[in-house]
């Protein structure tokens, strides 16, 4: 069975084609600048590896999907003879509100429900919908599946997801903590159980998805019981350009002092804050690490703020779970920064988590157990694979 996985952004489209017999990636690519002058596609076919990086006009997502299908069936860089070899398409959808606690086969009712969630994720759900509808137009007889970032966190208890504001804001407007990065947290917690050779249903796991966007999740018995992101991905940890959690009274104070509109204030919090705002240099953690080594105090304090914030949540979630069997690092920073992992995981011996410095330094972008030999709990590095989660959910649904 072959599954095409799509992740549609406002002007981009990522894709991977999986062979589900062995979960291998046959081809992957990225369409960029859709609807903008100079649109292009980078397509990579595997076994043997062939790459085509070319400009091609793509006025909308339907054209982009047509272009990627042409690439998949191309005589030189293609991996299938025709698109009839594609058995189903899995779509990443950012927000499923309380309507979806699991992935769903897409029909008119599901499409309408996803559209209702657009108000909660105006930057993400609309392009996700565009990708789905474009695919349905070009591949009308091929099953389509929606996999939701928020679904994994629907197991949070109400005392974890409710905000302490008037309850009617929840009942009328669905104001609550939803959580994001769900497919990533789900994948790495499941993979952690496999690495430990124990059922995930009997484990207490804290997963740290650390990148330009970051979140931490507390997972008990395979279910999310708390996570740092909230009503939007702005809450929680300081991130590349996002502020994370701050005193809400700061907003009205700054809006008055700086004469900012609500949209301008949100732009500051989403795009000018976090590591970029603190350092004044960059949102890229690699740039900050290099600058800190050269003596830049603001880069150094930005990294310390980030590490301290993650460590606070790890400690808090240990209390929530009643102990920790595994602490997992994933995503671009979590997988590739030994220094950040050491700053977060160091000094957690009281929790039964002891880091091996040599193992930590050696682990860059690969699966690894970086725990010290006497550590009761395990500290793991696990590269995330959200696309594989989407492919597997899609396969399971169409086999029913």
Layout: helices, strands, pairs:
Blueprint: E1 2-8, E2 13-19, E3 24-32, E4 40-45, E5 50-55, H1 61-72, E6 88-93, E7 104-105, H2 108-116, H3 125-138, E8 144-148, H4 158-161, H5 168-173, H6 182-196, E9 204-209, E10 215-220, E11 223-227, H7 249-258, H8 262-271, H9 274-279, H10 285-293, H11 297-321, E12 326-330, H12 331-336, H13 338-345, H14 357-362, E13 368-369, E14 378-381, H15 386-399
Parallel strand pairs: 1-6, 6-8, 9-12, 12-14
Antiparallel strand pairs: 1-2, 2-3, 3-4, 4-5, 7-8, 9-10, 10-11, 13-14
Helix pairs in contact: 1-3, 10-11, 11-13
Structure description:
This protein has 400 residues and is of the alpha/beta class. Helix content is 38%, strand content 19%. It is built from 15 helices and 14 strands. The protein has an 8-stranded mixed β-sheet with strand order 5-4-3-2-1-6-8-7, sandwiched between helices. β13 and β14 (378-381) form a beta hairpin. α1 packs across α3.
